[in-house]
Reverse transcriptase Ty1/copia-type domain-containing protein
Amino acid sequence: MKKALYGLKQTPRAWYDMLSNFLISQHFSKGAVDPTLFTWHARNDLLLGKQIDATLYRGMIGSLMYLTSSRPDLIYAVCLCARYQAKPTEKNLQAVKRIFRYLKGTINMGLIMSSVTAQQAKLDLELIPKEKRLEIGKCNGRLNPGKI
């Protein structure tokens, strides 16, 4: 076995055999279509977890997505949770609840828009020549160069 694990052409096969025997001894089962896929059934549920109401989960994610405009510290965590909107599990719901607990503790944080931003925008308009300005159309999102 040591020869097989260290440098011979059959190394991957020997490694797979050893891993396969161990997983089967731990009550995993091989997949019928893909023999490299091992699954473990616990009480008629796969290891993936119990599914929850997707409508509730989507509503919670939608509320959090709204908050990301003023709370950039939430963007990464919320986007990770948003990936599982099609089939959310209890584990995903626990992650979303944890974000809400974080929000409860940091209620006074957020971005504040001040008058400096408006002054900076006015200064930018004065510095950029009219022929180089770009306006986004209001109805269909077309770009109209030179119209401000």
Notes: Residues 12 and 83 are 34 Å apart (CA to CA). Residues 90-105 form the longest helix (16 residues). The longest strand covers residues 134-136. The two ends are 75 Å apart (CA to CA).
